[in-house]
Amino acid sequence: IVNNACAMAQQGIAAPQDIDQTVTLALGYPQGPFALGDALGARTILRILERLHARYQEPRYRPSAWLSRRAALGLPLGTVASAR
Q1: What is the CA radius of gyration of the chain?
Q2: Alpha-carbon gap, residue 55 to 52, rounded angstroms
Q3: How far apart are CA 10 and CA 68, in angstroms?
Q4: Cα–Cα distances in Å, from 31 out to 23, 48, 55, 78?
Q5: Helix (H, G, I), strand (E, B) or coil at 3
Q6: pLDDT tens, N- to C-terminus, the chain (84 residues)
Q7: Quick check: 31 and 20 in contact, CB under 8 A?
Q8: Alpha carbon distance 63, 17 (integer Å)
Q9: SS3 letters for 8-48?
């Protein structure tokens, strides 16, 4: 769910805060995917997805570019950098 949310944010479908709020309100999750991803850490999520993708070769496990970039830069998943 974290990877799917990252892909949605990358495509501009919705902002991370909106995705988190929608998931918590509509699906009843205790926290949104970005909050969960930040709690676990982007690098941890990335490593898990890379291993799952290498093992099963399924597209659903391919890490999104949003997740990969943020993990590489050490940025939180749930915030959008302001354009200056």
Answers
A1: 12
A2: 5
A3: 11
A4: 8, 20, 28, 12
A5: helix
A6: 999 999 999 999 999 999 999 999 999 999 999 999 999 999 999 999 999 999 999 999 999 999 999 999 999 998 765 433
A7: yes
A8: 20
A9: HHHCCCCCHHHHHHHHHHHHCCCCCHHHHHHHHCHHHHHHH
